[in-house]
Amino acid sequence: RDAGDYAPPDPLCFTAGTMESLGLSPWLVSSCAEMGLREPTPIQAACVKPALDGRDIVGSAETGSGKTAAFALPILQALSADPHGIFALVLSPARELAHQIADQFAALGAPLRVRVCVVVGGADMMPQALELSQRPHIVVATPGRFADHLRSSNVAPAVAKLRFVVIDEADRLLELGFADDLQHILSSLPRRRQTLLFSATMSGALSSLGESALRTPFVADLAPQDAVARRLTQQYVFVPAAVRDTYLVYLLRQCVEAEQSVIVFTASCRSCELLAAMLSGLGVECAPLHSQQPQRRRAAAVSRLKQGTLSILVATDVAARGLDIPAVEVVINHNVPAAPPDYVHRCGRTARAGRAGRAVTLVTQYDVDVLLAIEERIGSKLQPHEPAEAEVLKALPEVASARREALIALTESGFLERDKERRSGRKAEREEAEGGAGGGAE
């Protein structure tokens, strides 16, 4: 790249007083104002002008920094000058995030009466194919489902005049194994297009996709790898593994008393359902969020948290990236994430857009080495938080009883058996793939 193509990783380099200074049309500035967007964030100040000038973009910034508007604004301005469909395709790693991106396009583009279509898994393909055939202006999709449409539906003619493709949360898409679907989609799109790639980190995304997808892009790297938000208070509680749930209940009851919104992250779908059922049995209102739920249930949980009718969400890492929940005040890690980047992504649910936030990690005697690896990676130490043990353990009998009842309920509902079958199936698929690759049986 030429030196002028690279934006150094200093957000202070990109400040603009108003949305007008980005070169946006008056109608779009007014639309931003109606949504409370009066001053551009650093990633918007860095990327909107080059995108308006027709440049491909690689933008990296911490979660909650306004990346969606950074690509939506130039797309909508270009659409207003040449309205046709399908004008832009946005690829997202998660169904919930796809719906949130679509909502933001619809709100910002309301003066244009922009037509937005969401194409994600978990829904019937036939209505989606019909909607795509009607040429909506903006399509927001998960890569797997859109690639399925390209293979099985007559979608290719509908994207023949496509002007923009956005690859959002690019690093997460690659982590989730969407590389083949991405390459298939990109190879099916017009060569004369503008590509905007956004990510929470720069790691891997540009090197894996840049050569085939981007033409001399403008690069704005505003998120040092594995950085956590500046106003995030990071704490750990050292707990014996046998009473970890009791400490969780104690912390959550404190948050409820303080009227704080919380996301509890846990390691698996099974643990997520079990904790949510246990907490509900203890009178702690919450909702689970994991990949085995129907789409409507997941969307309802996210919507309730955003609207403030629910204050506690128990989630697996499916929710660790991209969810538009700006008001979460506390993140509690029920387990220590095995990979340091997962810790950073979880913490990205709080202390967003300059707000203060708190992340508390429950650390057992088996997690010390993992915690040290996280601290080394992020370059800072978590502060100890030491609740009075005697006070915490007062709740031990009721927590143990609630957990037993939750386990019985999940067994009777068939969830645990279904989860076991799902995990067995995934294990068999991995073993088959390894054998097919020449790994052989042990």
Protein model, in words:
The strands form two sheets. This protein has an eight-stranded parallel beta sheet, sandwiched between helices. Strands 11-12-10-13-14-9-15 form a seven-stranded parallel beta sheet, with helices on both faces. The radius of gyration is 23 Å and the shape is globular. The termini are far apart. It has helices at 26-34, 42-52, 67-81, 95-108, 125-133, 143-152, 170-175, 179-188, 205-213, 244-257, 269-281, 295-307, 340-347, 368-378, 389-392, 396-413, 415-436; strands spanning 6-7, 57-60, 88-91, 116-119, 138-141, 164-167, 194-199, 218-221, 232-238, 262-265, 287-289, 312-315, 330-333, 357-363, 383-384. Strand 13 (330-333), helix 13 (340-347) and strand 14 form a beta-alpha-beta unit. Mean pLDDT is 86; it is low at 6-13 and 429-442. Helix content is 44%, strand content 14%. It is built from 17 helices and 15 strands. By secondary structure, it is an alpha/beta fold. It folds into two domains: 3-221, P-loop containing nucleotide triphosphate hydrolases (Rossmann fold), CATH 3.40.50; 232-422, P-loop containing nucleotide triphosphate hydrolases (Rossmann fold). Helix 3 crosses helix 4 (95-108), helix 6 packs across helix 8 (179-188) and helix 11 (269-281) crosses helix 16 (396-413).
